[in-house]
Amino acid sequence: MSQDIPPGYKLESQLIYGKSQSHPGLFEIKFHNPKKKNAIGTPPEKLLTELVKQAEEDNDIKVILLHGGKYFSSGNDISLFIKSGDPDEKKAAAKYGVQKVMVDMLFALCFCKKPIVAVVRGAALGIAFTLLSHVTLVYVAPDVKMRTPFMESGQSPE
Q: What is the pLDDT of residues 112-122, one digit of tens each?
């Protein structure tokens, strides 16, 4: 198993997550897609939604920590939007599938009754920046870059 994964944690869908053994009551979720600066796609967004909902139901968890290590997230993995060869399929996925998953994720963060703390280093771009407005508390390193490059990348803002 990777050195990045603490004992008792799991790596799934580009997220490392688990209950902290050294800090009881803390549930940690870390973006883990280092080759793409922690870009996220539909599977990690779906899993993040599920993890937040599960943590909310777990009485042992008091706080959820969301971070990306040295680099929070470069936002949506845009390459996933163009993998399909069928233009109609791309449009449908972008309009309904991806949009719904993002909205579900943002709602789960926004309406979670437990505090969610985000620690941001490096950058928070696009959807990663947007999700910060849906958590309880955000710690930001002084040199963090935050951008919403939706129009530049041909996307509509959430």
A: 999 999 999 99
State pTM to two decimals: 0.86
Tokens for 112, please give them.
């979670």
Taking only the tens place, the pLDDT of each residue in 22-75 is 999 999 999 999 999 999 988 999 999 999 999 999 999 999 999 999 999 999
Instruction: Label the pairing between strands 63-67 and 26-31.
Output: parallel
Using DSSP's 3-state secondary structure scheme, residue 90 falls into helix
Residues 122, 72: Cα–Cα separation, whole Å: 6
Secondary element (H or E) of residue 74:
none
